[in-house]
Design brief:
Chain lengths: 452, 218
Amino acid sequence: MHPLGVRSLRGSTTLRASLALLALSGVASQAHAQEDEGVRLGITYRPGYVPALAITDIDAEAPFAAVAAAIDSVIARDLDYSDRFEILPVPDSLRAGSAVNYGLWNQLGAVWLVEGTLTVSGQQAMLRVGLHDVVYGSLKEVQAFTLPPVASPDFRMAVHRISDAVVEWATGEPGMAASRIAFSRRGEDGTWDIHVVDSDGQGVQRATRRNALVFSPAFSPDGSHIAFQYQSNSGDESGIYDLELETGRTSAVTSGSLMHLTPAFTPDGSRILFARYASGGTEIFEVDRSGGSPRALTSTAVGDVLGPTIAPDGRRFAFTGSAVGAPQIYVQEDAGARPRLISRFVRGADSYATSPDWNPLDDRIVYQSRVQGQFQIVVVNADGSEMRLLTSEGRNEDPSWAPDGRHIVFSSDRGGYHGLWILDTVTGRARNLLRNSEDQLPDWSNALGSDP
Amino acid sequence: MRPTARWTAMASLILFGLMACSSNPEPEVEPATDETPPAADPGPDPAELAEAAARSLCEEAEAAARRGDYDGARRLYNQAMSEYAGTECARSASSEIDRIDAIETLEERIHFAFDRAELSDESVATLNRKADVLRRHPDVRMTIEGHCDERGSIEYNFALGMRRAQAAKNYLSGLGIGEDRFRAVSFGKERPLDPGHNERAWAQNRRDEFVIENLGSI
């Protein structure tokens, strides 16, 4: 046990309010009891032990102290945002130092200690980072990372990758700091364009300038391209387009007079699944990334089928389908196979479930569902088991998993702060990513390697 | 209405491309100066005066029709017929009213229930009237735009709007109107008619709009 005893369990929220609310409405009106069946879900976060982590000042020669401090603050924030550590305030006496005194750090309550040294020779900057296991009194990992010039657009992303390395050393699991989120932003003239932002809310960039109806961005697996739905303002043109982020070049993957929407790359990046109007409604098709003739994967012929999201195995996919008369979430094994309903549909009730996103690491799917008349985020296993409510406040829509498989980004007006939000599905901790009510349909990239 | 308020209202109308729905009061037509001139004064020819007054009524009427104020246009044409019978404007007024009636019939919106794309009895009656006009004017082409209320998800509403547009297109095609005369598009919930957040606004916004692309012989 730790000298200072139990660490604070950040975000140990067990919200029973929604359960109480459901119980109340059941008493108030028997007639509504049936409707509530479809949404009888509780919010439960079961945070485990959150180890404390301390970061000392990065050691650097005087001319590079400012750069070192900037790197320090980025890493500290990344590790905080990872929601896997309690970040300890470090007393001045221990901020910069020579040899690590495990006893002192142990007394402060630290479980992990991160220290680093920045060396610069010419244009080349090198950051040597060590992770110490304070409890065992040993250096767990150490690695030297080459950094691009501070002015380089990749500098911050390079630092994020170091943060993710620290997360992986300490937990054995991937981080998500080195990633981006793409989304649609509505302009003042009512048109939409794709924007991207780093996972920590920095570096917002407009990625398309089409001044049209540009929706549903979807990152390619390596994060270098974004597929999106394009529709001209008159509705004359529609298609799935591909954007190369570095050059800003766009090209049509599919186009035609019929509506094309909701693209998603397969995990190997070779194909794009999307929805297109067929007869009676939209169906899901797949097409080679470079174009060609699309192949139908669904043949529901009743209502709409859209919003495909593909399992890590590259074979199964989930989607929104409305064959039962209201949109619900389905999982299908393969092209032409019979889809299986996984959201909870109650005929005659206010059932409405859309916008699924398959976890990049496991078999869980998040989606939005109407609960008590308001959209909330729900997580469920691909077989329909272990359904759980993740939000209860405000209107919450269009969730997308982070590459760490535990955070989600979604649009929300919770607490009156309308914009994009990030939620840790383990601790329940939420943070505002961008505060702009015109930002919608976020898609979280995979971890971005150094050479996308 | 104060000028600034009026400008704001106009700007938002332009934004939504809804000039057709302007409810701003239109300037009253100048009262016709139809006093008979004193006999002694040769003055202007009364017939010419009547032609001029009627012509200005017709111009007003055309402007009103262009704005989508079909009731106003009809009122002006009727006024021309009753007050300036025999003028060129009055002689053409009756066919102009027929023309406006046809355009208004073609443009009449149809509405839908929440999360539904089925045509109501009322919508079927509206589409039947459109079909009559379309049969009389075989060169008319239209874009049918499906729209949704704000309550569902952005992406799902695009699909739902397309089903609503296709429902009208399929019905009209089923009546024997050539399918190639219609283009179905969806704007999802992006272009609400009424920006409100209540059932009245939602009911207005769940609709098909009919945009005439080619007036043809109308």
